[in-house]
Amino acid sequence: MGTDEPGGEVAWDLFCRAGLFSFPLAARFHKVVGVDSDARTIRSAVKGAERNSIGNTVFIAADSLDWISGAQTTRLPARPHRGGPPRSGWGPPGGRLSNVEVRRLIYVSCDPATLARDLKRLAKSMLRVIDIAIFDLFPQTHHVETVVRLEHR
Questions:
Q1: Widest CA span of the chain, in angstroms?
Q2: How far is residue 92 from each of residues 89, 95, 143, measured CA to CA in Å?
Q3: pTM attached to this predicted model
Q4: Which residues lie below 8 Å from residue 137, measured CB to CB, with a gap of 6+?
Q5: pLDDT, tens digit, for every residue of 85-133?
Q6: 3-state DSSP call for residue 51?
Q7: Confidence band (pLDDT; 50, 70, 90) for 45?
Q8: Catalytic entry in 20, 110, 129, 144
Q9: If DSSP codes are grouped into helix, strand and coil, which group holds residue 9?
């Protein structure tokens, strides 16, 4: 998970909030698309990109799970929804992420149980785990953040 991560043409930052991951990705990719259901945080992300002269980002107010389905068919829904990243992960078995063809995926999770379920599903869709890092951002609580790097086999 070091600074030697490769870049590329396009990166999607789903559940992007105000662009915490979008902005560093913009230094490595030609274009970054940030998607979040909260229109207020999308406005903050747009302002942050303007303030920092980051011109290769696009931010969309839409449900990330709906958007990812539309992105595969080039139809990008822009219907705003409320709420942030779901602790429930990518939804019911056969969830939308399983249908997306990606070369690389960085999955950030705050719930180990849903992460395990989703990693099992992603392994079936030809992605393999390359690296895992666990961060205790909230000491003296049970919360941990897990970052998993996956690549196409």
A1: 44
A2: 9, 5, 23
A3: 0.76
A4: 143, 144, 145
A5: 566 666 554 455 556 677 888 899 988 888 998 898 888 888 899 999 9
A6: helix
A7: very high
A8: 110
A9: strand
